[in-house]
Amino acid sequence: MDILNNRSSVSEFILVGLSASQETQVFFFAILFLVYVAIIVGNLLIVISVIVDNHLHSPMYFFLANLSFFDLCLSSAATPKVISDFLRKHKTISWWGCMTQMFFMHFFGGGEMALLIAMAIDRYVAICKPLHYKTIMSHRVLIGFLLLSWVIGLIHTTSQMVFTVGLPFCGPNVLDSFFCDLPLVIKLACTETYILELLVVVNSGLLSLICFILLLISYVVMLVTIWQHSSSASSKALSTLSAHITVVTLFFGPAIFIYAFPFNSYSVDKFLSMFYSIITPLLNPLIYTLRNQEMKAAIKRLSNQHLKPTKMFFNRLMVK
User: Fold this and answer.
1) pLDDT digits 0-9 by tens, 7-34
2) Is the dihedral of CA 40, 43, 46, 49 positive or negative?
3) Cβ neighbours of residue 2 under 8 Å, at least 6 residues apart?
4) Can you name the residues that pair with 14 across neighbouring β-strands?
């Protein structure tokens, strides 16, 4: 069916949001605004630290910087609109705005999923094949993994959105959420969507579940390898690996729950959607910086290089 005909009946979607209370919405606005600022600052700090600090020019930190970039983009796909909607009485999003939001959410989400797998491979080689690590994880391989993550993200979102864009929407147009997402939007279509629902379950839910299980198996193998070696290097590897496991669980857990069973209504879905798109991008930089001594040292060096001259400049002004 022609896309323009679809849009002639439904030109926008109404978002229910999180609360009808004006006071509560102002509270959410303040909290999410601060959270989004923290997401931007935290993830940019990691990206800049990895770029400018020579101590962090290694495959692990290369992936970490790109993970932070994906987190920044993932949260930016919907969060600014969510924050601004808390100040609006009528929360709406245009048809094209909704489709664009879903496209980029799944684009960066799929890319991050692939990147987390690449990070697990990197840790596996470092722990289980340490003598061949530099040879295997060459610069060419790193770039290949990164490009593959972008390609997988594009395939992941395009394979679903190409069918969603062509759906007829003739009403109702109310989404019980604070941003557009595939399961909710598909349910509003005025046609049979069983095949598309199955595609979403396989492409987003089942794929996430399979990747999560495979990652857990690989982490178990790595943990067993670490426990067989009692040294300071093993202790450092265990700390890094525990951070990876935490991040993977935070990313895949909500995604599996939302997309593996996407067309049953659960009241917890709103919370999980917020956790997946907003809270996880905030927690990732915290997890990696708090559990990584090299990253904390690099951020400290970065702050000393830029904040100390500024502080000295203001001190001189005060003296004058």
Assistant:
1) 447 889 998 877 667 778 888 899 999 9
2) negative
3) none
4) 92, 174
Token pair for 131: 């003598």
Which residues, in sequence order, are bridge partners of residue 12?
94
Rounded to the nearest 10°, the torsion over CA 104, 267, 176, 197 is 60
Tokens of 51: 């770029």
**Residue bearing the bigger pLDDT, 83 or 261:** 83
Q: What is the pTM of this model?
A: 0.86
Strand partners, 92: 14
* Type and span of the H or E element at 12: strand 12-15
Tell me how far apart the alpha carbons of residues 192 and 10 are, in angstroms, rounded to a whole number. Answer: 17
- Over residues 54-65, the mean pLDDT reads 90
For residue 64, give Cα distances in angstroms to 96, 244, 318: 33, 10, 40
All structural domains of the chain: 3-319 (1.20.1070.10)
Closest C-alpha to 200, from 219, 217, 184:
184
The token pair at 285 is 């930089």
Confidence of residue 1 (pLDDT cuts 50, 70, 90): very low
pLDDT digits (tens, 9 = 90+) for 165-176: 989 888 788 888
Report angle CA 166, 172, 173 to the nearest 5 degrees. Answer: 65
For 171: left if phi > 0, alpha if psi spans -120 to 50, otherwise beta; the answer is left
Answer whether residue 258 shows pLDDT above 60.
Answer: yes
Residue 263, classed as helix, strand or coil, is coil
Give the mean pLDDT of the chain.
84
